[in-house]
DNA sequence: GTGAAAGCGCTAACAG
DNA sequence: CTGTTAGCGCTTTCAC
């Protein structure tokens, strides 16, 4: 089999504890012995078995990252940030895609636990996520951070983005351009991403003494197709809006397709806004007005939180909140409002 | 601490070996004892410690997936497929983003080895990747599959896509439309993705007795920005092409931006083709003519290969090759060829 | 059928 | 400074 600490010890003519000491820089070892041991380590190409270490130390140097879907660009970026930052701290991360399926999430959680991971980052938990609560109840000490969402009544570390603020900014921007009727294309009904954004939109609309008709708030999945579908429904309705606020860029791009399919021009006939500022947002025609989150910083902060909790349990929980930034591009403009729609 | 097999054994009044037997369905256990043990397991909420199991069995039920960058949509899709299929087989996967940096890859490989993972899938290895070779040389038995690329002189299982065929099809399609001068926007010079595609392009061009001028073959990174930059260079040159063949959709979309920025219309003034058929390809205006690979199947097959090798080492290596499919959309058309370019 | 005991490869007291 | 030893939690002979 592979070479163990025993092989090294024997060949170097020392005890395994000595080898362990030089390998971990722990305790005193004479320079001479250290040299000799290191020599043998090189020679034998010894690699430490982390499994044994983990079993002993009860630390796997691994964290779990639970996200809805890596295929979504936002989560891809986030995952990248978490991985890189995790590695920087000597941790590796196990990715889990739940597709927002709570059973899938539950089985991932118990899987991660069996694997003795040291902590979990839950990205964008649904607001009624039962697994986070169950886990916290069972083991309040276990390092958990909620990223981009918070489950009611669960006290963990948190990293949040004030999405409602972003939605507010976008809406206000549209109002200032002269828009008075809006369509809102959201994702899952019980995702925080949907709720937060709707909140911000409502605040801005109320402030302006306008109103948002209920039928113009549409839910669906987070795929481009869903944006297309929702927008179509919106644009063919009686009180069709002059602006659509989508919960994500991908949804917004779906709306572009809908507009094009029925011959509406953006932004003259219809203004559209997104959320996330994915790479493609600047490539579409016209470029998409959207809101950008410090995704990398989100990941970095979340990792810092778990890792610090893992290394030194603390009695309190903390929360960091980031503000998103609006990016105005070509997809929003003054409404012209004189178009007709082919039913 | 957490509950162990000893706790269960004690409470059930049996030996740990008995508990192990009922847990793993191995050896004879009386129905009565089994019931009792299972009862205690439920009661104590016992979860097996996979670390100890792994140390004992020398199997972690984990595979490593090495990719350039999860942020690239192609790899996001691939990763998703690999994860799902891995889980289906009871394996979990550790993601490693190398950014095509061989040193980073090397450190990941040794990291994975220390973690005692059971096998590795190398996605899109560069053709001179030194780590794969080193690993194979050191341990020829270790389960490895190369996906979407092959390092010269290294004998492992492989899952490939005949990208040269896709490039050939695309080029031929352009030739049939009447194009005679081409620009080629590639990624890294020593990536297989670049080489394969260029091969296919050359074959088609030679077949038609046309020729591809060397200055019209541009390399860069795989980001959208690089596509923009390369296309700009191409379009401002003396012998500007009427068609650009990009190595990926993202690069192609970068070319769209270049065309727009200097007022060329697609496909009248310039035809553009991509590669991969990412979701956005149908959303851009005009929709992108590209080539689609069975990404999910690629991932599935790769997992099948590692897993089967892990579970039952085999003496031979195998290779599965998939054919890509061309998807013709609006970005390619007959060249009009009467445009002028503002320098 | 079930129990006792020997490790898997490593760390961490505890002696010397 | 270095060696001995006792586990970490589990699987797996080998006896009974």
Unreliable stretches of chain A:
339-343
Q: What portion of residues of chain A is helical? A: 40-55%
Could you describe the largest sheet of chain A, including whether it forms a barrel?
Answer: 6 strands, parallel
Beta-strand residue percentage of chain A: 5-15%
Rg of chain A (CA only): 26 Å
Compute the number of strand runs of chain A.
12
- Coarse shape of chain A: elongated
Structural class based on helices, strands and sheet pairing of chain A:
alpha/beta
Give helix and strand order of chain A, one letter per element, not per position: HHHHEHEHEHEEHEHEHEHEEHEE
Main sheet of chain A: which strands, in order across?
Answer: 2-1-3-4-5-11
**Mean of residue pLDDT values of chain A:** 92
Query: What is the straight-line distance between the termini of chain A?
Result: 72 Å
Number of helix segments of chain A? Answer: 12
Pfam families (chains A, B): LacI (PF00356), Peripla_BP_1 (PF00532)
Protein name (chains A, B): LacI family transcriptional regulator
Keywords (chains A, B): DNA-binding, Repressor, Transcription, Transcription regulation
Organism (chains A, B): Aquibacillus albus
Structure in words:
2 copies of one chain form a homodimer. With 343 residues, the first copy, chain A, is α/β, with parallel strands linked by helices. Helices cover 44% and strands 14% of the residues of chain A. The first copy, chain A, is built from 12 helices and 12 strands. Chain A has helices at residues 5-12, 16-24, 31-44, 50-57, 73-88, 102-114, 130-138, 163-177, 192-207, 224-235, 249-261, 295-311; strands at residues 62-67, 92-97, 119-123, 144-147, 157-161, 182-185, 217-218, 243-246, 271-273, 290-292, 319-322, 325-327. In chain A, the strands form 3 sheets. A 6-stranded parallel beta sheet of chain A has the order 2-1-3-4-5-11, with helices on both faces. Chain A has a 4-stranded parallel beta sheet with strand order 7-6-8-9, sandwiched between helices. Chain A has a two-stranded antiparallel sheet with strand order 10-12. In chain A, α1 crosses α2. The longest helix of chain A is centred in the last third of the chain and has 17 residues, at 295-311. The first copy, chain A, is elongated. Residues 339-343 of chain A have low confidence and may be disordered. Chain A binds chain B through residues 1, 45, 47-52, 54-55, 58, 60, 69-71, 73, 76-77, 79-80, 83-84, 92-95, 97, 110-111, 113-116, 224, 250, 253-254, 256-257, 260, 279-280, 283-285, and chain B through 1, 47-52, 54-55, 58, 60, 69-71, 73, 76-77, 79-80, 83-84, 92-95, 97, 110-111, 113-116, 138, 224, 250, 253-254, 256-257, 260, 279-280, 283-285. Chain A binds a DNA duplex (16 and 16 nucleotides) through residues 4-6, 14-18, 20-21, 24, 26-30, 33, 48-58. Chains A, B: This is LacI family transcriptional regulator. Chains A, B: It comes from Aquibacillus albus.
């Amino acid at each position: 089999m592979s070479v163990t600490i025993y092989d090294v010890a024997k060949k170097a003519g020392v005890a395994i504890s000595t080898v362990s000491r030089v390998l971990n820089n722990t305790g005193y070892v004479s320079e001479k012995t250290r040299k000799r041991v290191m020599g043998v380590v090189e020679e034998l190409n010894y690699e430490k078995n982390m499994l044994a270490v983990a079993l002993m130390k009860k630390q796997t140097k691994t964290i779990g990252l639970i996200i809805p879907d890596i295929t979504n660009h936002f989560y891809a970026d986030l995952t990248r940030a978490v991985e890189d930052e995790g590695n920087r701290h000597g941790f590796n991360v196990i990715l889990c895609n739940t597709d927002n399926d709570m059973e899938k999430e539950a089985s991932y959680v118990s899987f991660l636990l069996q694997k003795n991971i040291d902590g979990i980052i839950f990205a964008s938990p649904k607001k009624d996520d039962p697994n986070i609560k169950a886990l916290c109840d069972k083991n309040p000490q276990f390092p958990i951070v909620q990223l981009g969402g918070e489950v009611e009544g669960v006290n963990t570390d948190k990293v949040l983005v004030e999405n409602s603020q972003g939605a507010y900014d976008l809406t206000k921007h549209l109002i200032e351009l002269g828009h008075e009727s809006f369509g809102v294309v959201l994702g899952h009904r019980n995702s925080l991403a949907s709720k937060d954004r709707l909140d911000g939109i409502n605040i801005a609309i109320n402030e302006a003494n306008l109103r948002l008709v209920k039928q113009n708030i549409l839910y669906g999945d987070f795929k481009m197709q869903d944006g297309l579908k929702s927008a179509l429904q919106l644009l063919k309705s009686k009180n069709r809006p002059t602006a659509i606020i989508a919960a994500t860029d991908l949804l917004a791009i779906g709306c572009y397709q809908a507009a094009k399919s029925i011959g509406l021009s953006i932004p003259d006939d219809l203004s559209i806004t997104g959320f996330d500022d994915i790479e493609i947002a600047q490539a579409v025609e016209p470029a998409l007005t959207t809101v950008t989150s410090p995704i990398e910083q989100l990941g970095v902060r979340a990792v810092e939180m778990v890792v610090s909790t893992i290394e030194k349990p603390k009695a309190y929980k903390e929360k960091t909140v980031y503000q998103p930034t609006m990016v105005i591009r070509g997809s929003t403009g003054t409404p012209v409002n004189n178009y007709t729609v082919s039913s």
